[in-house]
Write a structure and sequence with these properties.
Blueprint: H1 2-25, H2 35-49, E1 61-80, E2 83-103, E3 106-121, E4 131-147, E5 155-173, E6 186-205, E7 210-227, E8 232-251, E9 254-265, E10 276-290
Antiparallel strand pairs: 1-2, 1-10, 2-3, 3-4, 4-5, 5-6, 6-7, 7-8, 8-9, 9-10
Length: 291
């Protein structure tokens, strides 16, 4: 019931978002004697939204790319029978890059990121033990975007895509407090999330040089967890992400972007497979060729 309600709410939001975008995108009828006067503001509006490094000129192509660096942090919480038995913090960096191409109102992008981070918790499987955690994460993401150029300062878009995330982790506990399942101080596991996504967002230009791009995404994941003793679990669940990016056109095609992202895969926090989430800030430096 919870998943159906989430899907219904998001579908309704998407429908009315598309309806509003199409409504505002329709050109008003212009009298022949006023056509020259009213075309000029429209041209200026398009020039401003074109300042976004990922937006192509009307009926023309663009291609570009950027390097990026993320700093990620999150709470490290582990559950057993819907009870928290371990909690702590984890943080680290995640470098990567993005390539993108576009034509007219359409754009497609591919991102690759790989990072490592470490953390510690106050307890583990055995009461009184402390644990350290080392994680490595690899993420692939491809998205397609359709932009509606509707006004000078607000231009909505629809987003579809796919996110593939693999996270391996090594957990080490104190001497004398081995894990019960393998009688060892070390536990290794791997989580894989295969997540189609759909979202709504907007490009909000401030001027020809600076603007904001933001969107929210609904994700549905096929998740699998494997442990070093051969034990595994599989599950499907909803998730989501929110991304905000501030872009700056430095000179010609050279651009810089900074932003913030929160992503959560899985809603069943206390379930067997649990949920994985992260919060991060990032910086990007890239170049765009507008053909």
């Amino acid at each position: 019931m919870k998943r159906k309600s989430t899907l219904i709410v998001f579908s309704t939001f998407l429908f009315f978002g598309l309806f509003a975008a199409n409504l505002f995108a329709q050109d008003k009828q212009i009298a022949p004697d006023k056509q020259v006067v009213q075309e000029q503001p429209r041209v200026i509006e398009e020039e401003i939204v074109l300042s976004d490094p990922t937006v192509a000129q009307p009926q023309k192509w663009l291609i570009g790319g950027s390097s990026e660096l993320w700093y990620v942090w999150k709470n490290w919480i582990r559950w057993d029978n819907e009870q928290v038995y371990s909690s702590g913090k984890i943080n680290g960096s995640m470098p990567g890059g993005t390539i993108y191409a576009g034509y007219d109102n359409f754009a497609i992008s591919y991102s690759y990121r790989r990072g490592s981070w470490d953390g510690s918790s106050d307890t583990s499987d055995v009461p009184g033990a402390t644990a350290t955690l080392s994680q490595d994460q690899t993420e692939h993401e491809i998205t397609g975007r359709w932009l509606f150029k509707v006004s000078k300062h607000f231009n909505p878009y629809v987003l579809v895509g796919y996110n593939h995330l693999v996270r391996t982790e090594t957990m080490t506990v104190d001497v004398g407090h081995p894990f019960s399942y393998n009688s060892s101080q070390v536990s290794n596991s791997e989580r894989t999330y295969k997540s189609p996504l759909i979202g709504l967002g907007a490009i909000i230009p401030f001027n020809k040089y600076i603007g904001l791009r933001a969107d929210c995404r609904l994700m549905y994941s096929w998740a699998e967890w494997k442990r070093d003793d051969g034990f595994s679990l599989t599950k499907t669940d909803f998730g989501g992400a929110v991304v905000g990016t501030l872009y700056w056109n430095i000179w010609q095609g050279l651009n810089a972007q900074i932003g913030w992202k929160y992503q959560r895969l899985g809603l069943d926090e206390g379930g067997e497979l649990g949920a994985t989430s992260k919060t991060g800030v990032f910086g990007m430096l890239g170049y765009t060729f507008k053909l």
